[in-house]
Amino acid sequence: MKRRDEVLVGIFLTVAVAIALLGTLWLVRGGLSSGYPLYARFAWGQNLKPGQPVLLAGVNVGAVADVTLRDDGYLDVVLRVNDDVRVPKNSIASVKPVGIFGDAAIALTPKGPSPVSYSAGDTVKNTILAEIANALTLQLLSRFVMSWIGSCLDNCPGDR
Fold first, then answer.
1. How many angstroms separate the CA atoms of 94 and 44, rounded?
2. Are residues 46 and 107 in the same domain?
């Protein structure tokens, strides 16, 4: 009888730990949170997963609810935004790295104040042009820095 009680307690504890772990994961990914959906589309390779934060001007306002892989090289992303937050219609969505371990967040960046906001079910403006502009800006900046360093090295007084 004593052995049987030990087995039952072991099974009970195993089930309780599994339920606690799954419940914690569910809550962390927004299980009880309400909010309205917004949609965005990004290129493959953005390291997006459900549960990652959605930031509006750097403030956490929701989470990624779902990520769907498309055959044409894009990801359809469902954003769950808190009910008390209004995202300005002039906002652009982009993927921003968070931390050093490869995590990502969706950054909704408004161009300024706007009286018009996205409604539930709207799609945030295409972000691909913004990503291309950021890449070009970084490329131009790196070329400028390299040419500046080269000119400094050419004009430096010293041993020749």
1. 13
2. yes
Distance in angstroms (rounded) separating the CA atoms of residues 107 and 121: 18
Between 33 and 49, the more confident residue is: 49
128-135, long-range: CB < 8 A, 24+ apart: 128/42, 128/43, 130/92, 130/94, 131/43, 131/94, 134/94
Q: Which amino acid, one-letter code, is at 32? A: L
Q: Whole-angstrom Cα distance, residue 98 to residue 96?
A: 6
Structural domain including 140 reads: 34-144
Give dist(CA 58, CA 39) in Å, integer: 19
Q: Do 2 and 47 belong to one domain?
A: no
Task: Give me the mean pLDDT over the 10-22 stretch.
Answer: 90
Give the number of other CB atoms < 10 A from CB of residue 89: 16
Count: domains in the chain: 2
Verify that 116 and 43 share a domain, yes or no.
yes
Amino acid at 114: S
Scan for tokens 């080269």, then name that residue: 150
Over residues 87-134, the pLDDT tens digits come to 888 888 888 888 777 788 888 888 888 888 888 888 888 665 555 655
Longest distance between any two alpha carbons in the chain, whole Å: 92
